[in-house]
Amino acid sequence: MSRDARWKALLELLVERGRLDVEEAAAELGVSAATIRRDFDQLAEQQMLVRTRGGAVVHGVSYELPLRYKTARRASEKQRIAKAVADLVSPGEAVGLTGGTTTTEVARALAVRGDLASTAPGTSGSPGPSGSPALTVVTNALNIANELAVRPQFKIVVTGGVARPQSYELIGPLADGVLSQITLDVAVLGVVAFDVAHGAAAHDEAEAAVNRLLCERAERVVVAADSSKLGRRAFARICPAESVDTLVTDTAAGPDTVRRFEEAGVRVVTV
């Protein structure tokens, strides 16, 4: 197992359990205790965890695993969700995408849609036969903008702002300035938690503020979230459940959970 793969696995185990012992981690990953000690020391130097005697604990009370360390957990669910979300978008629409692993998959699903592939030669966002881009994508996520910028049929608008290393999202008043001047057909939210009573939420309040603005500028709001995010709360609220038009999730979502969202006026699509 490579160092990067070990680090991803260690951080994910730490997020799940809150604390890891050296011997426990070594047994889980099938490597020596000495290797785990070195990994813990190096991750502690990067402030990714807090070293303890004999192990490590998560860094801080509310811990968020940085995007670059997230592996393809629930990958199949996220890909199914992403395709279903992409199918809700019509050609020519203006789409807002927040950051996150699921919304990144939505961007990829949009990129391979056949009916959005036709465009006249030219620069990014060059018009197709209808005289307008196949899609206008507004995002505050640098990784999503980077992936879609090579698609000449899409017009890509980046909000501006200060980059947040954990999620590659741009946050702050510079992003507000751009979002206040545009309108969107649909905003697609990636969330860490979505609950009927507490709404859609993120770990970081500045990230949540930009995502909230995306919602406010959109005619309809879609939350793309696997079932593990449902019924959970997180620190910073993006919007109440009543502001969400559609939730796209996987079939592991419980019937009671689905019913509660539907009773709150949210259309639920399970895939």
What does it look like?
A hairpin with a 2-residue loop joins strand 2 (49-52) and strand 3 (55-58). Helix 4 (75-87) packs across helix 5 (101-111). The strands form four sheets. The chain has a seven-stranded parallel β-sheet with strand order 6-5-4-9-12-14-15, with helices on both faces. Strands 1-3-2 form a three-stranded antiparallel β-sheet. The model is unreliable at 119-126 (pLDDT under 50). It is α/β, with parallel strands linked by helices and 271 residues long. It has helices spanning 3-17, 22-29, 33-45, 75-87, 101-111, 142-148, 173-179, 205-216, 255-263, and strands at residues 19-21, 49-52, 55-58, 94-97, 135-139, 154-158, 162-164, 169-171, 184-190, 193-195, 199-202, 218-224, 236-239, 246-249, 267-270. It has nine helices and 15 strands. The chain is globular, with a radius of gyration of 20 Å. 35% of the residues lie in helices and 24% in strands.
